[in-house]
Amino acid sequence: MIWKGTWLSKDEVQLNIDDPGFLYGGIAYETLRTYDLKLFAARYHYERLLTTLSHLGLELSMDYSTFREILQEGVEKLKKESSIRVIVVPRGRFSAFEYEPAGCELIVYLQELKLQPLNFVKVKVSNVRKIDPSSTPSDLKVVGRTDILLAKRSKGDAYDVVMLGSHGQVCEGTFSNVFIVKKGKVITPSLDSGILPGITRLNVIKLCENLAIDVEERWVEPSELYGADEMFLTHTSRGIVPVNELDGWRRFNTELGKFLASKFEDFIKTVKENWL
Amino acid sequence: MIWKGTWLSKDEVQLNIDDPGFLYGGIAYETLRTYDLKLFAARYHYERLLTTLSHLGLELSMDYSTFREILQEGVEKLKKESSIRVIVVPRGRFSAFEYEPAGCELIVYLQELKLQPLNFVKVKVSNVRKIDPSSTPSDLKVVGRTDILLAKRSKGDAYDVVMLGSHGQVCEGTFSNVFIVKKGKVITPSLDSGILPGITRLNVIKLCENLAIDVEERWVEPSELYGADEMFLTHTSRGIVPVNELDGWRRFNTELGKFLASKFEDFIKTVKENWL
Amino acid sequence: MIWKGTWLSKDEVQLNIDDPGFLYGGIAYETLRTYDLKLFAARYHYERLLTTLSHLGLELSMDYSTFREILQEGVEKLKKESSIRVIVVPRGRFSAFEYEPAGCELIVYLQELKLQPLNFVKVKVSNVRKIDPSSTPSDLKVVGRTDILLAKRSKGDAYDVVMLGSHGQVCEGTFSNVFIVKKGKVITPSLDSGILPGITRLNVIKLCENLAIDVEERWVEPSELYGADEMFLTHTSRGIVPVNELDGWRRFNTELGKFLASKFEDFIKTVKENWL
Amino acid sequence: MIWKGTWLSKDEVQLNIDDPGFLYGGIAYETLRTYDLKLFAARYHYERLLTTLSHLGLELSMDYSTFREILQEGVEKLKKESSIRVIVVPRGRFSAFEYEPAGCELIVYLQELKLQPLNFVKVKVSNVRKIDPSSTPSDLKVVGRTDILLAKRSKGDAYDVVMLGSHGQVCEGTFSNVFIVKKGKVITPSLDSGILPGITRLNVIKLCENLAIDVEERWVEPSELYGADEMFLTHTSRGIVPVNELDGWRRFNTELGKFLASKFEDFIKTVKENWL
Known about the structure:
The structure is a homotetramer.
Chain A: E1 2-3, E2 7-8, E3 14-16, H1 20-24, E4 28-35, E5 38-39, H2 42-55, H3 64-78, E6 82-94, E7 99-112, E8 122-125, H4 146-153, E9 160-164, E10 170-173, E11 177-182, E12 185-189, H5 199-210, E13 215-218, H6 222-226, E14 230-235, E15 239-242, E16 245-246, E17 250-251, H7 255-270
Parallel strand pairs in A: 8-9, 8-16, 12-13
Antiparallel strand pairs in A: 1-2, 1-7, 4-5, 4-6, 6-7, 9-10, 11-12, 11-14, 14-15, 16-17
Helix pairs in contact in A: 5-7
């Protein structure tokens, strides 16, 4: 189902071949999901979308409650646990020479959330560095970020690939945040490492605090990744994903990761900010 | 006019709303032009396109002579000096989690080349750094490179904005290469500064050599930009563009730039490689 | 005059040829001066010295009041406005293979402060980048920092050379901090640009605030240096040094710089923290 | 034994307390050794010393044959396998404000080469990045390079610490070059990774070629270090040092490293360039 002013089926909607977003880029996006048919962390996603848009010089002429209503309406039509991709396409004077946005349009893609069970989760470290914030803000979430595209290319049978930053610090996966466990302590790259402020990441930090588990947000070295006791990824659709193997040879314990995963869904349901 | 398997008018072609290039990026492009209705440097552009595609894991199943014929056919239909935008859209399994290209499709946009006369050419230096090659190869020419998009945002009434590289070295404009003149010598950032290997740039270097003017390709410091006697930009549609003013206050002489511009068209017509 | 446990003349003191600081480096230093025979900002310098020592794994077994007394005693012996270089030489197991500091020794060089009048102050921008904090903390003030040494080499007849940082941002001179003036506003690189926290810099910021002049501490681009209305340097021995010319061609106004310089000495005498 | 114009014992030589090298840095050095009382690779070391000096704006007024003679004379006096540290101390106008070298002085430290047997060789990866070449050339071999000093601090019981470069690429140890072995192939960071052109490194590459073992010089990722089959270090005094353990947990096979080490001494004796 597609929302483009109104809810339509995929075949009812087409794009102009000269849509500026298609020809010149600058399409912002967010990925959301529901729990029990209720939108999870919609406010966080909406605000992160506004941040991306402001980097691009765009303003969304739609307040949060309208945004929320449209999405919730779609979920109710579908009547299923949903995976939602929201994109904002710029409008304006674009060419090879110009990028003068004037307005933008929201499009929503909504479909049933289907999660295949995960067995043995493999992760790789990419040799593509995350783009430095001096070139592109870490929280600019647009279609076709070249670092992410290129890193994804080497994914093979891995669940996700982890990218290092411009100084070689550990950053994040192409669609997930990275956590390691060392001697019972949970460690994750700080926002100033040059990462996207993941919403699940934030919830996991709160969960650890709630469980009185030590959490450190700071720069993380590649050596710490390989020397970790455990590693897990976090992202919207799956929450916490314990990692079994890094780079095809490094096996991890998954005890604390699995424990946190088992507590995750109940915990996030208790956090008011996730359901505004 | 659009070529998508065959030549059509803009209104006859539409895109699916879930075109992977639209939703996930990875659209390669090149911009070409004609001189006297003949394609300029088409071979260079074709090969640079292949380079971009190979970075993306894509292969174009179309050899150069077919590529050339299609473009030339379009020009002959239009019967006008043409500006041509060629894009290659990936096909395959794409999602928030995957980028597994399988094939790609060429689309050609062709329209009359209209160049407004330029009077007083202003240029700015952007504070957005060019993406470092460790994150994205400099010769990956895709739609929506975020560094270029963000740099274009601050263009205002400037003709183009010049970007510095990740170490602060002078790189290039968002659609042009940069040259300076100092004491009769022509200086331009070397390819290893992290720039796109511009085709007009290459022709200008050859032109200087042909005219026995010293040319240096090397890392250029911002201080040299401000301290230059002259500055000019080069790009496909206009060839050589002498710059009158940098950052709203630094005025340049344009003597050598204008002289080179006056020789440019005749010169490139004599270079066999441009017309293969 | 040299203090090495006690005050001696230069000829009375010698070093062992295998002094580890000489052979393996790691010598911390600070440069102080007096006003009216009283030590200026000695506490700040002492604390900055401790920071450098802690980066090196060294601890100075001398508290501030003893440190201060020794220096003041020297000044009183000399009975002249003094320029003081304090160095701390590491002791321990050093070799090509090891750096295991065990203790350190303070040496003080004290001589009359002689300042030649400055006429036309020239400054250059170096093409040597400041070492990135990921390699060496910006506030590690040791003898023989290679970036400073190499930048100094191109000084020629300039008063100081300004270094850009690893991303091309404006940092500081080899012995001074940099300020620019634009439309009546005073702008200086923020500490997170990767600069030494200059003590005179701090006093100048306070002076501006005291005079209700806008001061911005933030990342500064090279373009802003060349486009500034004024530029001035600050360092301990001279306070504020208005710059007349940058890179041999860019002339600056010096009005606000001279005004601030005229207020500087009276102001710093009123700031209690400078005389602790 | 010290050579300072003539051979003296350590106690016969002292330094002035205001030696510019001591106070302001810029002391070049090289470390050599003998095999069978003959200088190994003296010409390479001499030339590398000249490179360092040229970066510093210094010229050594001593040709290679004189340099060689002095060192060989020392070895003959000592009549023992020797470890030699050669330093070149700058002379000129140095101060906090100036670095204007005018001449320099060679000092030689010579002592018996004593190598303790190595059992279990541990190595760590440092979190101090190698200084980027834009700040300091990789082949500037001076006393007190702050990156090396700071990396050495965390050595603990490790034999050496490996430093990553400014982009996170594997560079080298604080006194050694790094090699890994993967599937029978020997891999070492290329010179453009930002490393010192090690003389033993060069000999090891030649040895591998001589033994028809594949050698790759290229950028090496941290992931490759941890995923390697073997790792070994190379440096002048010991030649090849197979590594048993990285970061306290990653154990390596040492088969090929030991094999190469067993061939090393005989091989280098056959290479004419080592004995010029």
